[in-house]
């Protein structure tokens, strides 16, 4: 992780794509607007490492990733067109080269659990470049939040691809 502080994504330094899958076939792929993204790294003076190499932090000492997405819904519908993905727990893997984010996707006022895997492409003291995916079960998401990919677009799962440079 970079040094403690709050980091944002500059305009044009991100990419978000939503893909609907029906079995092994992609049925719809669309770019989604990232209206805002931030990374808040808390100030930790002393970090204790456990056997796996992960930094042991309390719940308030976890880094928080926040992605604000726009234009998710079908072009003709205004419902569920905005979503916010906020991490609740961040766990490093492979010596910090991969991050697993347990997050909540807020869509239409309803929180839906999501698991986002991020690969750290580049890391410095003042910036972090990540690429990752979240796979969501489409039917459960539709029942819980009312989100629809489109009237004529069958899907069994969704993949949300995120690439962002926090600086």
UniProtKB/TrEMBL annotation:
Q: Which domain of life is it from?
A: Bacteria
**What is this protein called in UniProt?**
YceI family protein
Which source organism? Answer: Streptomyces spongiae
């Amino acid at each position: 992780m970079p040094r403690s502080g709050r980091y944002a994504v500059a305009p044009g330094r991100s990419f978000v794509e939503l893909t609907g899958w029906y079995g092994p076939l992609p049925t719809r792929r669309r770019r989604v607007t990232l209206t805002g993204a931030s990374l808040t790294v808390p100030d930790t003076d002393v970090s204790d490492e456990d056997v796996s190499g992960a930094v042991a932090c309390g719940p308030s000492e976890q880094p928080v990733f926040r992605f604000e997405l726009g234009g998710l819904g079908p072009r003709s519908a205004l419902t569920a067109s905005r979503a916010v993905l906020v991490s609740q727990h961040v766990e490093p893997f492979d010596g910090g080269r991969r991050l697993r984010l347990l997050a909540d996707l807020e869509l239409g006022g309803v929180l839906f659990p999501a698991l986002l895997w991020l690969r750290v492409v580049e890391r410095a003291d003042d910036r972090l470049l990540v690429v990752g995916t979240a796979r969501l079960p489409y039917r459960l998401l539709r029942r819980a939040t009312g989100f629809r990919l489109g009237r004529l677009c069958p899907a069994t799962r969704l993949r949300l691809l995120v690439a962002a440079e926090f600086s």
